[in-house]
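In this supplementary section we document a worked example of the pipeline. Step one takes a protein sequence of length 176 as its only input; no multiple sequence alignment statistics are reported here. Step two produces a three-dimensional model, which step three serialises into structure tokens for compact storage. The input and output of this example are shown verbatim.
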Amino acid sequence: MRKRRRLLGEILIANGVLKEELLNAALEIQKKEGGRSNFIIKSGILVFILILLILFIPNIGNRSNITIQDAKIVADVDKNMLPIKVTNSFPKNTSKVCAWINWKNAKINTQILVKWYYITDDEPIYDYSLNIPKREGIANVALSLPEGKTLPSGLYKVTILSGKRELTRPLKFEIQ
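The serialised model returned by step three reads:
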């Protein structure tokens, strides 16, 4: 069975570029004209739409409506990837802190960036790019030091981004 090709109007509506009412109005005008071809007008409209797409919607094919349902700072996760000990305060001998993330409505292969900061010295310390494998799911991103090393005392935060868009408010925690 051959897959039906989508019309430009359907694609623009699905991506939120064009409202269905505007498309219907344009189609009604075309219908009133009796389908007569006015090459200059049609070419001008096509060029105008392409310019709008290029200028204002650079990543139209890569858009994702990913929603973070829940995000927590945790000590670890269990074998089912569920949080163990949700907290925002860790003892001074801590060598591992995890950001647990639960998402929905993701386009498969959406990239999200989990950024770790040491607020005390205003330093970015770790960026992890996560390739989302399915529409809904959970993930764990750990900030982990080698055995015998511990995280310095102070304040930290984690941000979760898709492109430049923050998906949730920063998650903050401290090492005492």
